[in-house]
Design goal:
Number of helices: 5
Shape: elongated
Radius of gyration: 21 Å
Largest sheet: 2 strands, antiparallel
Number of domains: 2
Helix content: 25-40%
Structural class: alpha+beta
CATH topology of the largest domain: DNA polymerase, domain 1
Distance between the termini: 40 Å
CATH architecture of the largest domain: Orthogonal Bundle
Oligomer: single chain
């Protein structure tokens, strides 16, 4: 698959952290009695968070040796959202953004998530729109993240234009 497809439209499974055994200074020649991992998944399309969670747990349990056990601690889950490229909401937002910014707006898929958005879409039965104003060098969620004031101010004006377009 292409890099864009992987980034925009494919599910992911991430290991956010692994720890276990002796973690202090130096080393110890012991076999760890306990190990932990924190994982997350990016869902796409109509994937069901509960079904993905159950499948992952079943897979892990199927790989455990007979003398081992596993515990899972849930940290929530949310469905993905998906908008058709010809969605009237998306079309109006794209036009409004193009009126605010010097270059025409483009529609891209994005792997980011805000879990409540999928719930809003499902519960309210309406399309949800996520619009980002970050720049490619903002390094979102990294230790040296930044955000330009110009993006902030133009983002405010952009949302005014989007809401006006959707209300029309």
């Amino acid at each position: 698959r292409s890099v864009l497809e992987l980034t925009w439209a494919r599910p992911t499974a991430e290991v956010n952290g692994i720890w276990g055994g002796y973690t202090g200074e130096g080393f110890k020649t012991v076999i760890a009695a306990k190990a932990s991992a924190k994982v997350s998944f990016r869902l796409v399309g109509t994937q069901d968070p509960a079904a993905i969670r159950d499948s992952f747990r079943a897979y892990v349990r199927s790989k455990l040796p007979a003398d081992c056990s596993v515990e899972f601690h849930p940290h929530g889950g949310s469905p993905a959202i998906h908008l058709s490229y010809d969605s009237p909401v998306l079309t109006k937002a794209k036009t409004a953004l193009s009126d605010e910014w010097p270059k025409p707006a483009v529609v891209i898929g994005m792997g980011g998530s805000i879990p409540i958005v999928g719930d809003f879409q499902k519960m309210l039965g309406m399309e949800s729109l996520l619009v980002g104003f970050g720049l490619s060098d903002d390094r979102i969620h990294s230790p040296n993240e930044k955000y330009e004031l110009t993006s902030y101010h133009k983002g405010i004006r952009s949302w005014i234009r989007i809401m006006e377009a959707l209300a029309a």
